[in-house]
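Let us begin with a simple case.
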Amino acid sequence: MDSGAGIDADDACVWTERLGWAFGLIAEDPVARGAALIHLAEAQRKAADALARYNEMWLLTRPLGTDERYREPAFLRARWRHGQAQKRSLPDGVWGGPANGDLATWPGLPYVLLFLEWEARYPLEWTQHAKAWGTKQSLIRKVARARHEEATKAKLTDLVEVIVHRAYRCKDREYVRVARAVDSADLRHRLERAADSDSPWARCHAGYVLWLLDRPDLPNTRRVWRSWVAGGAASLL
């Protein structure tokens, strides 16, 4: 295996080496975001090239059979290089999760939050360069299930506030899970302000989240959401 094999270690320094550049994607400075987008495009190109080589080696080693293929050094090298290239790109780099299942202490958590914040604050750039609705949904559900420290709860509270103020985007309804997980007086105050704002989107979204926070047993289903949007929330009681 290549000399860089040790980079598979799952610690904060390794994550910084792989994806530290990605924080530029959520920078307020458009120049910084532009530089990060250029870096992302190159990372995605390398991942695509590595995948092509992996697929090529898959075909070349097909006659060997499965057992022999996974003992073939050239195939294993191509497979490893593809995995490493994925870890340096988005959305691939935030797939998976901690080996011990504890997302709250996982060194990859800041990058999961980064990916969600990028979609929340710069949705057009996210859609153009790394659209992955399934990944968005999976990450929201994962962070909603974890037991987080206060700093992470504050970040998630900020995300919920951003989401309710904008026009609905695919999988935004999943943030109800997050709101329920980090429910607090601060969050409810922000949602109440949004529900009283001049924005029809904010009134609808924030009102829906507040309504469900007061009804923890009511499922956050598509039917419930559609009924709320149609103004039929009273009929669900």
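The second case is a distinct protein. As before, the sequence precedes its structure tokens.
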Amino acid sequence: MTTLFSSWSLFSAFLLASVVLAVTPGPGVFYIVTRSLVQGRRSGLVSVAAVAFGNLGNVFAASVGLAALFAVSSAAFTVVKYAGAFYLVYLGVQMLRESQAEVSTSVPQAAPVGHIFRDGFVVALFNPKTTVFFAAFLPQFLSPEASPMFQTMALGSIFVAIAAVTDSTYALATGAVAPALTRARGARRIGCWLGGGAFIGLGVFTALAGSRSAK
């Protein structure tokens, strides 16, 4: 531990900062909450796992210097950012299309787990701001006595694990409320409209947002 972290106080500061950042709602939390509300707790938890794996991909990208590429190449950053934004809009449009179908049951039809995981993974992975965030945040807690790449991967993985716990709390809380909402006539269709609009709005926000930012 002493070679990975220069001191317990520094590691404690990292844990505290990570918890605060993880609890603060951002695009990832918003995506998970929307999935949980529209498609239930199970879909929300699958989305938590998918977002976590996507974020691990961003941690790896930051550790090998991809963040540096994004910092010096506006073209690379822009291409990845717009790809992620386009996918969010696509998900929103698909959800709006679902709202056009008549629903014969008050219980939302769960999408295939594979599709939910794929969507969450792509949404998280194609967010270059997360890679830049890790590249800016993690170095503050690195020790000069160990490999920067190893430390970045280790600290990034810890951060992702903390975020997965807080995201799961959001998914479970939202999923607990969802069944009550779906008992009302027409709530499923309204939920799809709200969810679809939320995804489209998030996609537009992602496309228009600057390079500052985070989770």
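The radius of gyration is 18 Å. Residues 17 and 159 are 9 Å apart (CA to CA).
Keep these points in mind for the review questions at the end of the chapter.
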